[in-house]
Every structure is written in C-alpha cells, then in structure tokens.
Amino acid sequence: MEYQLEKGEDGLCRLHGTLSEAEVLTAWKKAAAPFSASFRMAGFRPGKAPLEVLEKRFGPQITEEATTELVERVVNAALAREGVTPVSGFSYGGQGAARGRAFTFSLEFCVLDDMALPALEELSVKEKAAVADPVQEELFLRDMLARIGKRVPVTEGSPQDFDFVDAEVTGRIDGRILPGMKTGSCRMRLVPNRPGEKAPDLDPVVRRLAVGETGTGTTVCPDNYPDPSLRGRDIELTVKLCGMEREELPPLTDETAQKLGFRNVEALKAAAREQALALGARHARSEERSALVSELENLQDFEAPAALTEKCRREAMRLSRQYLSPQYASSESLKESLARMREEAEDKARRKARVRALLLGWARKEGIDVSEEELGRVLAGRAARQNMDVISYRRSLALGGEVFELRAAMLEERALDALLKKVVSA
Prior knowledge:
The protein has helices at residues 21-38, 51-82, 134-145, 202-207, 254-259, 265-297, 306-324, 331-366, 372-385, 390-396, 402-423; strands spanning 2-7, 12-19, 91-93, 103-110, 125-126, 150-153, 164-173, 176-189, 214-220, 234-248, 424-425. By secondary structure, it is an alpha+beta fold. It has 3 domains: 2-110, 2-Layer Sandwich (Alpha-Beta Plaits), CATH 3.30.70.1050; 121-126 and 280-390 and 401-425, Trigger factor, domain 2, CATH 1.10.3120; 150-248, Roll (Chitinase A, domain 3). Strands 6, 7, 8, 9 and 10 form a 5-stranded antiparallel sheet that branches. Strands 1-2-4-3 form a 4-stranded antiparallel sheet. It has a two-stranded parallel ribbon with strand order 5-11.
C-alpha cells in the first residue's frame, strides 16, 4: 500500500492511493467469501466455487465491497499518520478494484488549517423569552385526553378545528405543476387561528370542502423556493379532501385526570401547560441559534477556505438538481432553472462555508471535540433505522467520506451551542 497526500493552500487535500495486485486479490477474496459460502454449483462443494464463476455472478457487489475496504484502509492509515481531519465529504476519482491488477484511486476533501479568527465572543444575541402558546397548550391537553379517547371517520360536513384530514394538493403556475407541489395524499391537523395571525392559505380551502370534494385557492410562492424566478408569484392550488377524522374525547373531569395518572384536572392542565412552555423554550432557543448563525454569516471580513466554499456550492447544486430533476420533462428546462439558481447557490455556499469554518476553528481553539463514542452512537442509530449493522453501515459511507462530514456537522452544532452560551444577553 502506498499513498501520497497533497495539501493545497486553499484547504483542498488530494489523497492518491495505490494497492498492489496481491492486496487487491486478498480484499477481493474476502469480499467474495460471503457469496461463495451461499452459492451452490454442480460439481463444487459449498464455498469452493471458482473465482471466475463468482465474478461472473456477483462481480459488481464484490467489486464494490473490495473497493470500499481498500479505500477505507488507505484513508485511515494516511489520515492517522499525517494528522489530518477532513471537514467535508470526499470527491472520489478512480475505477473499482479489479481482480488481477493493481488498484489506484484519488480523493479530494477539505481541511481547516490554523487561521486567524474574529473575536466571536464579542458577538451579541438577544435572549428570547420562553412563552407557552395557548393553542399549543390546548393541543397537548387534547393529546393527553386522546389516550383514552378515540378517532372516528367523518363523512359529512366540513372539517373543524383539531380534525385530522387527508388531502391531495397540487400547485400550478401558468398551468404547469410546480416542482414539489404535487403531494399525493398527505395528513394534516387543523388548528385554531392564533389572535392576529393569518391562517395558512391552504386552511380555508380545506375547511370549506366535504370528503371527496375538490376546491381551489391561491398562495404565494415562498421566498425560500429553490427557483428564484418563481418566488413571490401566485400559485394556483387544487385541493381534494380525501378523508377526515374527528376526536371523541372524554370529559375534562377529575375522574378522567385520575385515569390518566394525574391527581385532578388542575394537575392535568398544569402538565399540558408545562409541555407548552418547554416547547416555547425550544422555539426561543432555536431563534437564538438562528440569530447567531446570521451574525456569523455576515462577518464579511472572514472568508472560509476556497475549497470548502466550492464543496458547499457543489453540494447545494447537487441537492437542487436532485430536487428538481423529477419535475422537469426536458433537460433544457432543468438547465435553465438551475442556471437561475447558480448565483444564489454560490452566495449560500459562501455563507455556509464561513459558518462552518468559524465554528470548527473556534471549537479547535476552545478544545471542543466529538468523541469516537459519540459519533458511534449516532452511526448506530442511523444504521438501526436502515436495518443494517454498524460496521456495514459505516463502510457504506467510506467512499463518500460521509462519516467525516457527519463528524464535522456534529462538531459545528456543539460549537454553536457553546458559543451561544457566551454571547446571549438579556
């Protein structure tokens, strides 16, 4: 195994790896072993099928596993020896590892060198008061009562406050379905309008329908819609009410409260109020975090390494393409839409890269880190949700370097919380 690590001044690292034919064969046999053990072929005992046969039958799967194992081996060795920690995913270059020949590949990723940071502790974010929202308090109370209540289908009349409705929503501009605005059946809960708050544009359309009916309305394309040319324009909504359920709740009495494990009605109400206050505290905290991120984004005197900014730009465009591609019939229309988004994507990438560089640089200065155990717990949770074991899941992320991207994101969040404690003020 040989490698060469090239460090650029703009934060870009290139890792070139070379593995011998013998190393490839060892990895290839290891990757082929599970397939060999389960493969049955006339004239051969289980586990003894020729490699040529296995390659013909399971070649792509074996190649992928062997390639991942070899790349991971080089990456782990190189980063440990060179003391380098990526702060982004990888851009992979090279073919898969093939039995019978040496294997070479290259990776590009971003690192953060030591850099001069602004005095981030001098930033100021105003503390947000935690408030219990009365509507949310009522929702929590209803949810507790619903434990011994039931939901019943409703086929007559129109939806009311707190009903659960299933609706299909389609949004069009100039007669064309707007990308992302054809939902299929989606479930929502209708809530009362808060004093002085405008109801969502979809709400009055749904409330005047009966099950099976279709209605129309309008809304405004939001300011954060991916295609900037469509923002602010009217969207024509078509809404079909597919189904509706209404809660039948027990009376609000001491007896009901006791069935739910509370001393009396007042204790039950207090629990709902406490939940609403806790939610209000989380909302306040979220607003404080957003305000701090905005402060960091607007530190114009600091620029992130160019390589990190470019990585963020590519990722933004990749996600935009992934989001929009299924919605466009022609590649030319998709290209036009993406071209309109490019300038904005570049600005967002600069801001995102600036925040990441500032927070990761500050974390290094403050000795803030994410341990391997903490990273492992997050990976274990993600693996479980995909019905995979942790080792296989982690290996599936190797070629793209997503483990390093995840670690950087976790560290960024931890640094943001630590910095917020220092800069928030009443």
